[in-house]
Design a protein that fits this description.
This protein is mainly beta. It has one domain (23-191). 9% of the residues lie in helices and 57% in strands. The protein has one helix at 2-19; strands at residues 24-31, 40-45, 50-55, 59-62, 72-82, 87-102, 107-116, 123-130, 133-143, 156-167, 175-191. Strands 2, 3, 4, 6, 9 and 11 form a six-stranded antiparallel beta sheet that branches. It has a five-stranded antiparallel beta sheet with strand order 1-5-10-7-8, with no helix packed on it. The protein is elongated and about 55 Å long. It starts with a helix and ends with a strand. The structure holds 2-acetamido-2-deoxy-beta-D-glucopyranose (2 copies). One 2-acetamido-2-deoxy-beta-D-glucopyranose (NAG) is lined by residues 171-172. One 2-acetamido-2-deoxy-beta-D-glucopyranose (NAG) binds at residues 52, 54, 97, 137, 181-182. Residues 1-20 form the signal peptide. It comes from Candolleomyces aberdarensis. Keywords: Signal.
């Protein structure tokens, strides 16, 4: 019995320690049709263990006055991260603060994927809304799978691609989606 209790104590101490790990960002690069260099900022929220990506002008539009390319935009971020010794992290979901306005039958969606540079596996998630619908502020959640872990305890580079789609299915209906202020990618830790 005493040994079981001490094992539990050790386990909860490890969990607490894992929860207190900190991630730091050393660099951020952005490229894509939805973001020009210098329009994206990233910072780590230690309190809720997430990376907040702030876009200044990231939107997709569809309708009679828009080109097909206006309905498919993306932003590929290259983020240098410093991972504490003995730990690795993985993103589990992204939360996008969006605004959208879509008429009947028009679909808007957001997808996120990420991978660590030099590794083959990628994790991704998508979610969307079909019109008629509109909202000036809605959070869209992309749950990412499978879980892809960072290299163990060292600096690495993670590529995070976010795309927005607006598709009217070749009708004359209109729709748009934009990221209002930020996308927050939350992460989890494990020992390695
Ligand atoms: C879209 O509008 C144009 C111009 O009014 C019209 O010629 C065309 O047939 C419409 N297309 C559809 C799919 O309704
Ligand atoms: C984005 O806007 C929402 C709602 O106004 C707010 O709760 C959130 O803190 C904002 N995020 C950032 C990074 O400013």
């Amino acid at each position: 019995m005493p040994s079981m209790i001490s094992q539990l104590a050790v386990l909860s101490a490890l969990l607490l320690q894992a929860a207190a790990q900190t991630l730091s960002i050393s660099s951020v690069g952005a490229i894509g049709t939805g973001c020009s260099p210098g329009t994206v900022k990233a910072h780590v929220n230690q309190a809720d263990q997430s990376v907040s990506l702030q876009f200044s002008n990231f939107r997709a539009d569809t309708g009679p006055n828009y080109a097909i390319s206006d309905g498919r935009v993306n932003c590929q971020l290259t983020v240098g991260v410093q991972v504490p010794a003995g730990y690795q992290f993985a993103f589990d979901q992204t939360v996008l603060n969006t605004a959208y306005s879509v008429s009947s039958g028009v679909k808007v969606s957001s997808s996120t994927s990420y991978y660590f540079q030099g590794e083959l596996s990628e994790s991704s998630g998508t979610c969307g809304v079909t019109g008629p619908a509109s909202s000036s502020y809605t959070t869209l959640v992309n749950r990412l799978s499978p879980t892809i872990w960072s290299p163990c305890g060292k600096a690495s580079i993670v590529s995070i691609n976010t795309d927005l789609r607006a598709d009217n299915g070749n009708t004359n209906n209109s729709g748009s989606i934009s990221v209002r202020n930020s996308t927050d990618a939350s992460f989890i830790w494990r020992r390695c």
